[in-house]
Design a protein that fits this description.
CATH topology of the largest domain: Rossmann fold
Shape: elongated
Number of strands: 25
Largest sheet: 12 strands, mixed
CATH architecture of the largest domain: 3-Layer(aba) Sandwich
Number of helices: 20
CATH superfamily of the largest domain: P-loop containing nucleotide triphosphate hydrolases
Radius of gyration: 32 Å
Helix content: 25-40%
Strand order of the largest sheet: 11-10-25-24-23-12-22-21-13-20-14-15
Number of domains: 3
Strand content: 15-25%
Bound molecules: adenosine-5'-diphosphate, magnesium ion
C-alpha cells in the first residue's frame, strides 16, 4: 500500500497534547477505498497515524471542523476567507507509538508542524489492537471503527485495578457484564473466583452453567438457598433490622446482652477464641430467640415484695423462647398494692414487640432461620460461617451469584453491606492462607452499585465498598461496579477504578462524573455517549492498550427481564374468584408467600 493513498493532511499546530491537522484539499472523498476496504476519515474516536522515520505515532481524533481551528489560524481565515474556507481541520491527541511491530501506550517523542498525517488501515489497527497476551486477555466484542477486529481486555488489570461499567438503563450494561464474566469463565481456569451481587436476579439466566446461584426463594432445583445468618451481622446492622427507636442507653444494654450470649456460645462450643477479643460485632452464633425471651421476661416480671427481686409472682402463662411466647406474671397491683412492677425494667417492650414480629416474619427467614446456620437456644449451630464462605467463594464453579431479589427492600442495603463485609473480612484475615485473595484473587461484581455507595453516606455497605476500593488490591479483591447513576457513586471510589467502560449515557450530570474519571484528552469522546448504540461503549484505562470505542457481543440469552409483559399476560382469562383474594389476604396477614401444607 502506498503511503500517498493514506495521507490526509499535515500538522499545522502543536499545543501541549493537542495536535491540529489541516486536511489536504486533495482528499477525494471522506470515504476512501484502500485495498478494497472502505475507510471513513474524521470519525471522532478513530485513529490517525503520524509516521516519523523509524516510528509511527498514533493519535485519536477528538474534534473535527471549525472548532478545531487553532486561534492563530482563525485570524488568517478571517483575512483570507476564500483561500481557507474549504479546508478542514481536526484535532487529535497522541495515545501511543509503534516501533517495529510493537505498539505501546504513550509516546517518547512528539511530532512537529509539517509532519504528514495518515488515516490508519486494517494492518495498522491490527498492530494497535494486537499484542495482547492470549493467556490473560479476554475478547468481548468488536472494535467499532473496524468491525473485523476483536476488542480485547487485559483481564488481570481489569480485575486487580477495579473497573466500572456505566451507562443509562438499557444501554447494555448487564449484557456487557455477562459477556465479560462468561469470557473469563470460558477460559477454563481451575480456580477462578467471581462473586456477583445481583439485586434483581437477572444474572442466573445469562451466566448459566458457569455459575452457582444462591437465592432467598430458589425457583428450581439447581438454585440453592441463600442464607445470611443474623449472628454474622455487626451489632448495629442487626439492630437496624428491627424497626423502632432505642435510646443509647438501651442500645448499650442490649449490646451487653448480645455480647454475653456470644461469650456463652464460646464456652459452650469450646470455640478457640480469646474471650477478651470478642465483642458484640464478632460473628459468633447465639440464639436471638433466647435473647428476645430474656429481654422480654425482664420487662414483664412482677414481684410480691417491693424491691425484693427474688419474690417473683407466679407465672400465669409459661412462655416459650423457641415459639416466641412471653412469660406472663400476675399483673401489677394498683397504687401501692402488690404485685409490684420491676422498677429496673427498661421500657423497651414496644421495641421487643417489633423484634418478635420480625423474627416471625417469613420474608426474614433467610436471616433468622438460616437452615443449618440457625443456632438452637444454647447457640449451637450445625454449620459455621466457614461453610457459608466455602459455598460462596470456594465453589467448583467460577462464578457465584448471590441473588438478593427476595430480600425486603428496606433492609437490602444493610444485608448486602454485611455480606460484602463478611467476605472482605474473611479474605483480609485469611490474606496469608492459600485461600486468601493474594493466592486466589476474587472479583466482586456489584450491580446497581450506586445503592451501596450513596456519596456522603456512612452505611456499612458504603464503608465496605470504599475499603475494598482503597485496599482490596493489596488483598486480591477486585471490584466491578455497575451503575446507571455514576453521579450517585462516591467520587473517590470511581477514581479508584482503573478501567472505565462507558456505555450510552443520556444524562449530562452523569456524563460529567464519567469525564472526571477519564483521562482529559478523551473528553470529547464522552460527548459522544448520548448517541452511541446499545451495547457500544468507550473503554479506557488500564485494562486496554488504548482507549477504544467498542461494540460488545450480544449474549444469546438476554438478562432476565423482571418486567412482566402486559401484552402477553393479559391475553388469557385468569378465572380468579373471591377465594383467590381470600387466600391472598390470608397470606398477607400471615406474612407468607405460600400456604403451609
Ligand atoms: N451488545 C449488544 N448488542 C445488541 N443488543 C444488546 C447489546 N447489549 C444489550 N443489548 C440489548 O439491549 C437491551 C438492554 O440491555 P441490558 O444489558 O439489560 O441493559 P442495562 O443492563 O444497561 O439496562 C437488552 O434487550 C439487550 O438484549
Ligand atoms: Mg441491567
Amino acid at each position: 500500500m502506498r503511503n500517498a493513498e493514506t495521507e490526509i493532511g499535515e500538522i499545522v499546530n502543536v499545543s501541549g497534547n493537542v495536535i491540529t491537522v489541516q486536511l489536504s484539499d486533495t482528499i477525494k472523498s471522506n470515504m476512501p477505498v484502500v485495498d478494497g476496504t472502505v475507510y471513513r476519515i474524521g470519525q471522532i474516536g478513530s485513529f490517525v497515524k503520524v509516521p516519523l522515520g523509524y516510528a509511527n505515532l498514533y493519535g485519536i481524533v477528538t474534534q473535527i471542523g471549525a472548532a478545531a481551528i487553532p486561534d492563530n489560524i482563525k485570524e488568517t481565515i478571517e483575512q483570507d476567507y476564500d483561500k481557507l474556507s474549504n479546508r478542514q481541520w481536526l484535532n487529535m491527541v497522541l495515545v501511543g507509538e509503534q516501533i517495529g511491530k510493537k505498539f505501546d501506550r504513550g509516546v517518547s517523542q512528539s511530532p512537529t508542524t509539517g509532519d504528514k498525517v495518515h488515516f490508519v488501515t486494517i494492518s495498522d489497527l491490527d498492530i494497535i489492537y494486537g499484542g495482547y497476551n492470549e493467556d490473560n486477555s479476554i475478547t468481548v466484542g468488536n472494535v467499532s471503527v473496524s468491525t473485523s477486529l476483536n476488542a480485547k481486555i487485559d483481564m488481570d488489570k481489569l480485575i486487580s485495578r477495579h473497573c466500572a461499567i456505566l451507562g443509562s438503563t438499557g444501554s447494555g450494561k448487564s449484557n456487557a457484564v455477562g459477556v465479560i464474566l462468561n469470557a473469563i469463565a470460558n477460559k477454563n481456569f481451575k480456580s477462578s473466583r467471581i462473586l456477583v451481587v445481583d439485586p434483581h436476579g437477572e444474572y442466573s439466566n445469562v451466566l448459566g452453567e458457569n455459575s452457582n446461584v444462591y437465592k432467598v426463594k430458589p425457583d428450581c432445583e439447581s438454585e440453592r438457598k441463600l442464607y445470611i445468618p443474623f449472628w454474622a451481622l455487626p451489632f448495629n446492622e442487626l439492630m437496624s433490622i428491627f424497626s423502632g427507636n432505642l435510646s443509647d442507653q438501651n442500645r448499650d444494654y442490649i449490646r451487653t446482652k448480645v455480647l454475653e450470649a456470644k461469650l456463652k456460645t464460646v464456652d459452650q462450643l469450646s470455640l478457640d477464641i480469646e474471650k477478651e477479643l470478642v465483642d458484640s460485632d464478632t460473628p459468633i452464633p447465639f440464639s436471638i430467640k433466647q435473647l428476645w425471651f430474656e429481654l422480654d421476661d425482664f420487662e414483664r416480671r412482677t414481684f410480691n415484695e417491693r424491691g425484693n427481686y427474688d419474690s417473683l409472682t407466679e407465672l400465669r402463662v409459661e412462655g416459650n423462647a423457641d415459639k416466641l411466647i412471653s412469660n406472663e406474671y400476675e399483673p401489677a397491683g394498683i397504687g401501692s398494692c402488690r404485685p409490684f412492677l420491676n422498677n429496673q425494667a427498661k421500657a423497651i417492650l414496644s421495641f421487643l414487640d417489633n423484634m418478635r414480629i420480625r423474627l416471625k416474619d417469613s420474608t426474614y427467614n433467610f436471616l433468622f432461620e438460616p437452615g443449618d446456620y440457625t443456632p438452637d437456644l444454647c447457640g449451637n449451630v450445625k454449620s459455621d460461617l466457614s461453610n457459608l464462605l466455602f459455598e460462596w467463594i470456594g465453589s467448583d464453579k467460577p462464578i457465584t451469584i448471590l441473588d438478593l431479589s427476595g430480600i425486603p427492600s428496606e433492609i437490602m442495603i444493610s444485608v448486602a453491606g454485611t455480606l460484602l463485609k463478611i467476605i472482605y473480612d474473611a479474605l483480609f484475615w485469611g490474606q496469608d492462607t492459600k485461600i486468601g485473595g493474594k493466592e486466589q484473587p476474587l472479583l466482586v461484581v456489584l450491580e446497581e452499585a450506586h445503592n451501596y455507595l450513596k456519596s456522603g453516606e456512612k452505611s456499612i455497605s458504603s464503608r465496605t465498598v470504599q475499603t475494598i476500593a482503597k485496599e482490596g488490591r493489596k488483598y486480591g479483591v477486585g471490584l466491578m461496579l455497575v451503575t446507571q447513576r455514576p453521579s450517585e457513586l462516591d467520587e473517590t471510589v470511581l477514581s479508584q477504578c482503573g478501567t472505565i467502560i462507558a456505555l450510552r449515557m443520556n444524562n449530562s450530570r452523569d456524563r460529567g462524573y464519567i469525564s472526571s474519571a477519564i483521562q482529559d484528552e478523551l473528553q470529547t469522546m464522552i460527548d459522544l455517549l448520548p448517541s452511541i448504540r446499545t451495547g457500544e461503549g468507550i473503554i479506557s484505562g488500564e485494562g486496554v492498550k488504548i482507549p477504544s470505542r467498542i461494540q460488545f457481543y450480544k449474549l444469546p440469552k438476554s438478562s432476565k427481564g423482571s418486567d412482566p409483559k402486559a401484552s402477553e399476560k393479559w391475553v388469557d382469562k385468569k378465572d380468579a374468584t373471591i377465594d383467590d383474594y381470600n387466600k391472598l389476604l390470608s397470606l398477607w396477614r400471615n406474612k407468607k408467600f405460600k400456604e403451609d401444607n
